[in-house]
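A further point concerns the way the authors explain their paired sequence and structure data. Nothing conveys this as quickly as seeing an actual entry. An entry of this sort, consisting of the sequence and the corresponding backbone structure tokens, reads as follows:
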Amino acid sequence: MTSSPTTPSATEAARAAGAAVRSRQILDAAARLMEKRGSESVSMQALAQEAGVSVGLIYRYFGGKDEVLLAVIVDVLDAFAADIPEAMEAAGDDPVRRLAAAFDAYCRVIDRHRHAVVLTYRESNALSPEGREKIKLLEVATSEPLREAIREGVAAGLLATDDLDLVAYNLLLLAHSWALKHWYFERTMTLERYITAQRTLVLSAVIPADHRAAYADLLGA
């Protein structure tokens, strides 16, 4: 009895899975090297060596170093776009809990991509004008779930703020600080403690006193 031939769909799936693994190797290696040395100082040969692939393989996925840098940054924003809505959905309908879940998810993505986040701050000016504009648009889009939750919380009387953009971007900057100042925070706290402390700091400022008892678990009580 002969075995049935591999179906085209199975073959395509295997190829796609292999390509995803190789692309992840390249992006992770690029984030580490470029964050350490600066994108201008990283050669394609050095990147290939760090990733454990050939230079030719990198060029199969990216047109050059500029494309690699842009892909590293977009990769983080894509993770936000995937993880944050999922976390908010799991949190249910309460806008305060949805906001807390969004911040939690944001911090966890930052933790997984710490090198890439630092690289974003250091090297985004090295992108083309088109690349920088793409990053700006994606950043606004991925921060919208935070604004949405704050907007809903204010409408329900569960949150009090006159500037939802300011609250949203304060949360984003606090999440980014886990990467930007990780060398300092890792001395005294875990990611879990960091999330709890920063969430408590912001929510304590925007949850009215008469609603705080309902969210004692989010306020570190």
